[in-house]
Amino acid sequence: MSEEPLLSVENLRTTFTTDQEQIRAVDGVSFSVPSRQTLGVVGESGSGKSVTARSILGLVDAPGEVHPDSEIRYHDPTFVQQIARKYPDQVQWDDDGDGFVTVEAGSGEGDSVTVERGSVDLVAAPDTVVRSVRGSEIAMVFQDALSSLNPVYTVGNQIRELLGIHQGVTGSEATERAAELLESVGIPDPKRRLDEYPHQFSGGMQQRAVIALALACDPSVLLCDEPTTALDVTIQAQILELLERLQRERGLSIVFITHDMGVIAQVADSVAVMYAGEIVERASVSRLFDDPKHPYARGLLQSIPGLTGDVDRLPTIDGSVPTPNEPATYCRYAPRCPKAFEECETIHPEHVSVGEGDHTAACLLYPESAGLAERLDRHHDTEETHE
Amino acid sequence: MSDSTTADDAGRTDASNPLVTVDGLRTYYESEQLVGGKPVKAVDGVSFEIGRGETFGIVGESGCGKTTLGRSILQLEDVDEGRVSFDGTDVTTLGRRGLKEWRRDAQMVYQNPMSSINERMTVGEIVREPLEVHNWETAASRRERVQELLDRVGLRPEHYHRYPHQFSGGQRQRVGIARALALEPEFIVLDEPVSALDVSVQAKILNLLSDLQEEFGLTYMLIAHDLSVVRHICDRVGVMYLGKLMEVGPTERLFTSPQNPYTRSLLSAIPQPDPDVGADRITLRGTPPNPRDPPAGCVFSTRCPFAIRQPEHEELGDEQWAAIAQFRRMIRERASSTTLERAKQRLGMGTQFTPIREVAEDLFGSLTYPEAVEETLTRATELVADGDVTEARDLLDDEFSTVCEHESPQQHEVGNGRSSRCHRHREEYREPGDYLRDAGDYLPE
Q: Where, subcellularly, is it found (chain A) (predicted)?
């Protein structure tokens, strides 16, 4: 994964503050999505997967808040150039400055600047910029298709509306485009379907329509939040196949959020395993399944029924996912971890390399080659430099 | 799930002495329309047996009738036809009092137990309720019994006075299980007991269920759409599609060498938690048909990748064949639209169909067909263009339909205690497995 990322997230923190406590739903998450690849984000409910996706699109509502030190960078050069021209006083070359547009390679200045490599930080950028990203550059597909569609408008009207708002396409041209979109997501007889209401579509069809809506403005990144969880397995297979084809045809980058390890194995190129607001392991899909390192990732893989074959009892993970409501000064998995030792409760593990490629795990057991004292030191030190 | 036998052992339970025998069960839901409505055949002629101490699984996609089947067996639905005998007694003929007595022995665990009970009751009251309904011993011993049950399913004594909303999903399911166990039943229908739970919690509930089965000698019928859960916990499995049982057999054999085309397709659609598994799965086209209007022949015929073809079409490529199937589906759909819809369509109001010539061009444009087939397709297209949708449908039926579309297949014995409903098991046709081997290897494993 040495390629340039299209989307990168650095130390993302999203908190929800209530009268009683502050919940750190996403607590220092970093990852990047290379162009035309799929990043799988896997974890149990409450691990912060969905909040991560919503944070990227600025869809977190009060009392939720994305911490201002977080960075969400979108790297598409055309888009960066467009924003750089629009906000010349926000442009910083390399990293020296406090503008939200970073140009790493390019030339010129003011409204004739050209950008070859750079990024826009969506956390620091004003709402208008985030809005121009949402839908047009980065689009989202939610789990529950029916609730993402408006029940009182026909499917065609909803697509036409979107095309009108985002691209100024109206009238019969919009109808034509809408039919093309439905056809591209494998809905037969699209012209007829345009005049139907969402409830007249089957579950799989609805999800196809939602994907068509997400693709209407030709985005480069698709965030899929459990898009197949509510579907039957044969329909799930159709939707996964569709996403694969669309990715190939349109060169999409996909962030695929799911709790299903089977789906991850099928769609992802690389995987981030989340637990209680943090990423505990990052690896290519084959590394994760062949040689999971973090005890949580191991436990998760082992508890899948049917995989372990002829065992009478499934290995389980004791306890349940804690609510991350205090700063992580310890390993949040320690209370459930079969391998936990004393220091797990006082030292927060940092990501260290655990194998080839970008395989990293946040666990005091690693790096394996080092002795205990050295390992503890290392995790301790990294932590301090972070503050 | 007993530990003394291996998963491959078909005869682990006493098959000669089944606890539950279901014979030709039919449950129809009447149409809401006053005249001319067709009933929904939710369960349509299902027969199987469940041995004592066995876990029998029912799998299928949503809307296939698996929950209705479970509810029908417990007499929670009015059965239209067929028998359900429990320990030799036909429970479909029981009166009110008899049913109440019998229900001590047969309980159900729901997917979300909290949606089916009063949230204003404490957990203790919830578990105690069945004991009260059945006047179980004295008040004091009921209380004791509830404590014992809570302990048995892994809840703590202080949970007695808590309310369901204070519990996590896994704990709630434990409450549901404790309630089902209260009257010491012999048989429990588990309706998607773990599908709302995270995988690590799911594993704990599955382990609990298997411990309880061993301890109390329970017989389970597990209804699930998650095939990996079924594979883990069940001794035998029945695969349902549109109200019919397509295949029944011992779990491991059914999973490793499925005989029925639907079972094969279903299994190959499961995403394997292994990135190295190739993508050579069978992806079914379309969605299950409306159960109000099921196909005339085999219920799976509209989507079956193994469907029998007329001899002159045997040589057609898969892509060519799929395009024809898609074309026929579309025309069938149009033919079944109401007269009013079609009238509106003619007048250019309301629903707009994609012009048929455009459809045909999209589907067949890049493919080549033998002359005879080409001719039929063109004629059908012209008929639709002239407004004779029904005639086009009939024309295509004449040319392409086979036994799969006319006749509902029998249940064929396919060895090792398995049976499968498919015309391909008949002598004159190639077995699904052989057909597949010839067509290129799609096998899930």
A: Cell membrane
Q: How far is A94 from chain B (nearest CA, A)?
A: 38
Residue B315 near chain A (CB below 8 Å):
no
Residue B127 inside a domain? The answer is: yes
Tell whether B54 and B150 lie within a shared domain.
Answer: no
Nearest CA of chain B to the CA of A95: how many Å? Answer: 38
Q: Which residues of B touch A262 (CB under 8 A)?
A: 228, 270-273
B443 touches chain A (CB under 8 A): no
Chain A CB within 8 Å of residue B338 CB: no
Residue of A nearest to B363 (CA): A188
Of the residues B179, B214, B231, the one at which a domain ends: B179
Rounded to whole angstroms, the Cα distance separating A26 from B23 reads 54
Chain B residues lying within 8 Å of A285, measured CB to CB: 275
Does some domain include residue B99? yes
Q: Are residues B151 and B256 in the same domain?
A: no
- Residues B152 and B267 grouped into a single domain: no
Interchain contact B350–A (C-beta under 8 A): yes
Are B370 and B320 found together in one domain?
yes
Domain harbouring B16, CATH code:
3.40.50.300
Peptide bond preceding A367 in cis form (omega within 30 of 0):
yes
Kindly identify which residue of chain B lies nearest to residue A299, measuring between CA atoms: B200
Residues B41 and B95 in one domain: yes
Q: Is B229 part of the contact surface with chain A (CB cutoff 8 Å)?
A: yes
Q: Does the CB of B7 have a partner CB in chain A at under 8 Å?
A: yes
Q: What is the pLDDT along chain A (387 residues), one digit of tens a residue?
A: 446 799 999 999 999 998 888 889 999 999 999 999 999 999 888 889 999 999 999 999 888 999 999 999 999 999 999 999 999 888 888 777 788 999 988 888 778 888 999 999 999 999 999 999 998 899 999 888 888 899 999 999 999 998 998 888 888 999 999 999 998 898 877 888 898 899 888 888 899 999 999 999 899 999 999 998 888 888 898 899 999 999 999 999 999 999 889 899 999 999 999 999 999 999 999 999 999 999 999 998 888 876 555 567 778 887 778 888 888 889 999 999 999 999 999 999 999 999 888 899 999 999 888 888 888 888 887 654 443
Contact list in A for residue B210 (CB cut-off 8 A) is: 312-313
Domain ranges of chain A: 146-219, 293-381
How many domains, in total, are found in chain B?
Answer: 3
The pLDDT score that the predictor gives to residue B2 is: 42
How far apart are the CA of A67 and the nearest CA of chain B, in angstroms?
Answer: 29
Task: For residues B334 and B372, state if they share a domain.
Answer: yes
B6 and A CB contact within 8 Å:
yes
The whole-angstrom distance between B10's CA and the closest CA on chain A is 14
A-B contacts at Cβ under 8 angstroms = 140
Out of A259, A260, A301, whose CB is closest to B271? A260
**In terms of domains, do B96 and B225 share one?**
yes
Nearest chain A alpha carbon to B194: A305
Residues B34 and B157 grouped into a single domain? no
Q: Write out the residue range of the structural domain in which residue B144 sits.
A: 117-179
